[in-house]
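Re: the 286-residue chain
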Amino acid sequence: MIKLLRLILPPARSFVPVAALFAACAFGASDVRAQSRTIVIDPGHGGHDRGGVPGQRISEKQMTLDVSQRLARILEASGYRVVMTRNSDVFIPLGTRVATGNSYRGATFVSVHFNSAQRAGANGIETYYYRGDSGGLAANIHRHVVAAVPTENRGIRRRGFYVLRQTRVPSVLLELGFLTNPREGSLAMNAAHRQRLAEAVARGIRRQPPPATRGLVAGSARSADVLAPTIRGHDVVYPAPRPPRRSQARYYRSSRSHRASDRKRAGSSKRSGTTSPRKKKKKSRR
């Protein structure tokens, strides 16, 4: 009987790693997963590129760097490997930002921005993605940011911004509020608010994207059905609520800026460092 039990039960010392595994699953599964994950954080703009619209009082490049550095500290404390495309007030070309993200296999690329508009009333949080495997990540980050910041949910949208289109890893671009809006601009100047934003983004990154969302395209019935149960409790709608029509949102493909008018066409916003020109195909002569 004793010999039979010895055959069935492993040696007592083997229970130690098993117990440790169960403890990790119960109390720190996200930290265990974090050990093998690399997050590339891309603070928008920098150097001579201040970001925003002409005459804007608050410098976007300073806000994006501050939030990015806070986010980096939070993620590093959770066991992630963090890479910054810039860690000071310097100008980094788009190609270099993308190359940094692509140089780390299995990384996640997070580009941090703040929005701006000529109309002071424009406000809210927007999250962008392009790759099919980035929809779940965008949804996770977006719902946590909107839950942490009492402002309008402008939704999650799929756009071919350069840093999203050219990266070969899951990537998102965050617009964490309008610096040209009196209320959101004042909040952005507050260090406690920037810390809340960084913590919300970190919570979204820590949560693994639901496997069922990989490869789904924004706007499809299937993607909306899969994501809705995850984010409905936080009053976040996916895809974006009241999607803009062609006359309401325009994206000009220039190397330095994109512009988008708000719903009432009362103003336009200017972004830099997010898009890149696409070469026009020459028509063949027959």
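Residues 36-245 form a domain with the Aminopeptidase fold (CATH 3.40.630.40).
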